[in-house]
Amino acid sequence: MSASLVMARSFDDWWRTVPADLKTKARKGDEANKPLLNQINYVLLHLHLAGKHDLKPTHEELKDWLHSGQVDVLRLGK
């Protein structure tokens, strides 16, 4: 089976693997809204700096989350 046919994790599946303190810092006060790409980037940077590369999502997972609407690139005011 090719890598492109392997089922990628959903954002929620990945988010459950992120350390609680990092989740709190990234989303504090915004938990009721859909996650923003900027919040995901914050988590990715801190995972990278901590050397926790195995916790980072794949490129394909990130693309899927954006294209499927699991994560917003930007939030427009109402």
Relative helix content: 40-55%
The dominant shape is globular
* Rg calculated over all Cα atoms: 13 Å
Order of helices and strands: HHHH
What quaternary form is this? single chain
Strand portion: under 5%
Spell out the key features of this protein.
78 residues; mainly alpha; 4 helices; globular
Structure description:
With 78 residues, the chain is mostly helical. The chain has a domain at 22-68. It is 45% helix and 0% strand. The chain has 4 helices and no strands. The chain has helices at 11-15, 20-27, 37-49, 59-67. Helix 2 (20-27) runs antiparallel to helix 3 (37-49). It is globular, with a radius of gyration of 13 Å. The termini are far apart.
Strand and helix map with partners:
Layout: H1 11-15, H2 20-27, H3 37-49, H4 59-67
Task: Please give a quick description of this structure.
With 78 residues, the protein is mainly α. Helix content is 45%, strand content 0%.
